[in-house]
Design a protein that fits this description.
Helices cover 20% and strands 17% of the residues. It is built from 4 helices and 5 strands; from the N terminus they run αααβββββα. It has a 5-stranded antiparallel sheet with strand order 1-5-4-3-2, with no helix packed on it. 26% of the residues are buried. Residues 1-69, 73-113 and 202-210 have low confidence and may be disordered. The structure holds a DNA duplex (16 and 16 nucleotides).
DNA sequence: CGTATTTGACCTGCGC
DNA sequence: GCGCAGGTCAAATACG
């Protein structure tokens, strides 16, 4: 995955002001509900949490005004469109299949819909794509109403892993990136920590030059 | 040449 | 039923 840095990091002073290099880096976003059927992505992914180092701000989503939390706790009831035209490929995590099967069963019976839980959080960053350690393949991009930035759709490239994520920059606050995860990884982190450390080191170098 | 990205078309759900 | 918006597919293209 490429981290693109079209804009120099120096373009945002406030961005740098938000940096904290302490060992605690950031308060961990509150873990998503850790029931057996719910993703525990954030709590299981220290590298992502670490990325908060140059995020340094986890806030509620717009009108929700949920402070102190990057985890927005979205149930994403607005995620109306799951693609059911094709049968999912290889079986993924059990939880994933449970959600899928429930959805199918529900569709047959015409009952209430069961959707995969989604978890979203905001990240203040100049780059859209945060290296969370997993490999993602972009499969779509859409213009979103009332937002001048497009939303990008990514899928985990690990065979059988059906985790998806959406990335979108806010119009109101262009420095803020909203990342939404759907599903739970059924495999360990695929990449070494090199990339993340590289990013961090770059930031630290820049910070030192201020 | 294999892999990743781009992008227009298509599908689905929802509100009116 | 129709139109809109969101989500996904897949062929074309770019890239290493």
């Amino acid at each position: 995955m490429n981290i693109h840095c079209d804009e120099p990091l120096s373009s945002s002073l406030s961005f740098m002001e938000n940096l904290s290099y302490s060992s605690s880096l950031l308060p961990c976003p509150p873990s998503p509900p850790l029931s057996s059927s719910s993703p525990s992505f954030l709590s299981l992914n220290p590298r992502l949490t670490g990325l908060g180092a140059y995020n340094a701000e986890f806030k509620g989503h717009g009108d929700n005004n949920i402070e102190q939390s990057g985890y927005l706790g979205l149930d994403m009831s607005n995620s109306s469109s799951l693609d059911h035209r094709r049968v999912p490929e290889a079986p993924a995590a059990v939880d994933e299949n449970d959600a899928e099967n429930a959805l199918k069963a529900v569709k047959k019976k015409g009952g209430k819909k069961v959707r995969k839980p989604k978890y979203a959080f905001q990240t203040r960053s100049q780059v859209d794509i945060l290296d969370d350690g997993y490999r993602w393949r972009k499969y779509g991009q859409k213009a979103v109403k009332n937002n001048k930035f497009p939303r990008s759709y990514y899928r985990c490239t690990f065979h059988g892993c059906n985790v998806k994520k959406q990335v979108q920059r806010l119009t109101k606050d262009e420095g803020m990136v909203v990342t939404t995860y759907e599903g739970m990884h059924s495999h360990p982190i695929e990449k070494s920590t090199e990339n993340f450390e590289h990013i961090l080191s770059q930031l630290q170098i820049y910070g030192a030059s201020l």
